[in-house]
């Protein structure tokens, strides 16, 4: 394990599975901002999803739902949309950087390949960062262990990547979202527990009504949840969990129907259900570092 580096000040990071999905998560975001959303500017970074072809209706719906929260300014950006200096100016002008879902491995790569990873590291000290699914998964210090530990090597090949590395190395744990989603395999909890043991890293597995609040990356996150979540130790043992009332009275996890925004190769998805994932994409080309 690499040594954790003390963080210089309170971080304002909200890692979500399904975006600003409920009032509890929204209130946490407003608290981090210290002002209303109506007085705040957000930039949504969508590179994680851009490698997937097909009808983008789900993406548009998610963006529209996020815009409807009532921001003062709602910007959408790709890290490769012009010179790095232009993208950097858009990131710096926002109060909130929202990393949208898709491929966690490609998203982390995009920050590095664009040359903007150092900018992100700096802005994490100044801005609020909101992760949405894969956008929450790019800060694991040992992200290189993810593909093998979670049977996700196919995604490296899909995107033409030789290996995995974090956008910014912050945590000694992995984030995973969509606990209880109806497209998840029935043994998803066992799969993530096994991945924790394989990788030697803790795993936080949360549903779309939960988020992790990070103020100090060297300390455990604070759970914000009206739903359910699991925390697995580095040996794969269940360390802590919360189940919603509906689940406490029956066997099994309550299911929700929301599209997948990260896609480990073991997930037996029916791609036809999700407009963003209808055909196998060609591997996107890495943009050169400016």
TrEMBL record:
Keyword Transferase listed? The answer is: no
User: Which molecular function terms from Gene Ontology are attached?
Assistant: serine-type peptidase activity
Q: Which GO terms describe its biological process?
A: proteolysis
- Mind telling me which Gene3D superfamilies this protein's record contains? 3.40.50.880
UniProt keyword annotations, A-Z:
Hydrolase, Protease, Serine protease
Q: Name one Pfam family in it.
A: Peptidase_S51
This protein's superkingdom?
Answer: Bacteria
Q: Into which family does the record put it?
A: Belongs to the peptidase S51 family.
What is the name of this protein? Dipeptidase E
Provenance organism: Microbacterium lacticum
Organism placement in taxonomy:
Bacteria, Bacillati, Actinomycetota, Actinomycetes, Micrococcales
């Amino acid at each position: 394990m690499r040594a954790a580096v003390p963080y210089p000040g309170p971080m304002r990071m909200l890692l979500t599975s399904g975006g600003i999905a409920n009032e509890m998560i929204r209130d946490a975001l407003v608290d981090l901002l210290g002002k209303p959303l109506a007085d705040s500017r957000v930039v949504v970074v969508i590179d994680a999803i851009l490698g997937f072809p097909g009808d983008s209706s789900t993406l548009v719906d998610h963006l529209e739902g996020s815009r409807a929260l009532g921001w003062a300014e709602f910007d959408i950006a790709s890290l490769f949309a012009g010179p790095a200096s232009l993208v950097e100016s858009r990131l710096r002008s926002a109060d909130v950087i929202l990393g949208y879902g898709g491929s966690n491995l490609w998203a982390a790569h995009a920050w590095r390949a664009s040359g903007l990873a150092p900018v992100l590291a700096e802005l994490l000290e100044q801005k609020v960062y909101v992760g949405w699914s894969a956008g929450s998964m790019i800060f694991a210090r040992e992200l290189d262990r993810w593909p093998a530990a979670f049977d996700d090597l196919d995604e490296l090949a899909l995107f033409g990547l030789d290996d995995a590395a974090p956008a910014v190395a912050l945590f000694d744990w992995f984030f995973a979202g969509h606990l209880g989603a109806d497209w998840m395999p029935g043994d998803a909890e066992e799969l993530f527990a096994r991945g924790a043991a394989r990788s030697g890293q803790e795993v936080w597995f949360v549903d779309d009504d939960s988020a992790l609040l990070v103020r100090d990356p060297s300390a455990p996150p604070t759970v914000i949840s009206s739903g359910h979540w699991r925390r697995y130790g580095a040996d794969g043992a269940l360390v802590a969990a919360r189940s919603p009332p509906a689940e406490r009275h029956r066997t099994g996890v309550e299911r929700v129907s929301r599209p997948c925004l990260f896609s480990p190769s073991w997930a037996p998805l029916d791609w036809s259900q999700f407009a963003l994932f209808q055909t196998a994409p060609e591997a996107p080309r890495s943009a050169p570092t400016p």
